[in-house]
Amino acid sequence: MKYINANEILPEMLIEELQKYVQTGYIYIPAKREQHKSWGELSGYRKELERRNKAIIAEHHRGVPMEELADKYCLSVYAIKKIIYQK
Description:
There is one protein chain. The chain is mainly alpha-helical. It has one domain (6-84). It has 5 helices and no strands. Helix 4 crosses helix 5. The chain is rod-shaped. The chain starts with 5 loop residues before the first helix and ends with a helix.
């Protein structure tokens, strides 16, 4: 997360109001609920994991052993089982 100096973006009266509550500290301002992005949505990592998991499931259905899948994808056998038996 990049920090921004409040003096650069907020009006002076708002800064003075905030200073009544916080002095020389950091304030986290969350996104509005309708603007919130779910985990991995911005980076595309969620879709990448979905593609990987579909490939793991398809390979397992073709008979590839879980131990081999774990080695190939650098995951534990337990993680492979979770992916295969999800839902």
